[in-house]
Amino acid sequence: MDLDDTLIPDRSAAWAAVEATLHSLGVARASERVQSVFDIARSCWRAGPYFESLKGLGISSWEALWADLTLASVPEAGGWGLRYRLEVWGDVLRTAGAVAEADREDAARQFVRHRQELVRCLPGAAEFVERMARDHEVWLMTNGASRLQRLKLSLSGLDQYVARVFVSSEVGHAKPHPRFFEAVSDALLDDQAVCLVVGDSLDGDVRPALDRGWPAVHLPCTRVSLIGDVVPPCSHRADAS
Ligand SMILES: [Mg+2]
């Protein structure tokens, strides 16, 4: 199973958390400024010293706004990640007309709080995973920072059903890199086989599974709009960096 935007909302939750943060900071026309926060984050992310390494590990600019980037393979990323958050929110507030040093720290903290509060399962996801776990081992295959993905799993309550977790930053390669899927294959015991892969990404989840002869189901991201009462629809087009 994939995690982000398959079992729990990711992009739409990030969008909603940014909007809530801007609102709570008293930024005027908060809903109109959300895309600019993603744009600033992407720009700072790409200019950062670890962009290529972190991209290869499947970590995105908006996730890094609340991720603990403590990573064995990029030891300096943890400290840099905290500075990155402040840089992004500093730029956001400067653009909005506020420049106080304390503001950006408050903004960075508030975003983390809002984002954590928005970790929840998509409708039917917990029931599906619970049912699957009765007769099967549920393995999670997810891109992102190790601590963040495991935090999401725990906050969503899905961890109780998941027997094994593959996080790209731990594997060393992100989906759809073949080495990620090799790590999953290598972990299968002789009497185990993959009976179903479920994911929202055709390139990251479905095609690599089918290439290995694993049955797969595609859950397109548009279904995130079904949780309009939980978080707003996935209306932006933030890319995977
Ligand atoms: Mg996904």
From TrEMBL:
Species for this entry: Streptomyces coryli
Single GO molecular function: N-acylneuraminate-9-phosphatase activity
Domain of life: Bacteria
Taxonomic placement: Bacteria, Bacillati, Actinomycetota, Actinomycetes, Kitasatosporales
A Pfam family recorded for this sequence: Hydrolase
Coiled-coil region: none
Name of the protein this chain belongs to: HAD family hydrolase
Any GO BP: N-acetylneuraminate biosynthetic process
PANTHER family: N-ACYLNEURAMINATE-9-PHOSPHATASE (PTHR46470:SF3)
Keywords, ordered alphabetically: Hydrolase, Magnesium
SUPFAM superfamilies cross-referenced by the UniProt entry: HAD-like
Cofactor: Mg(2+)
Regions crossing the membrane: none
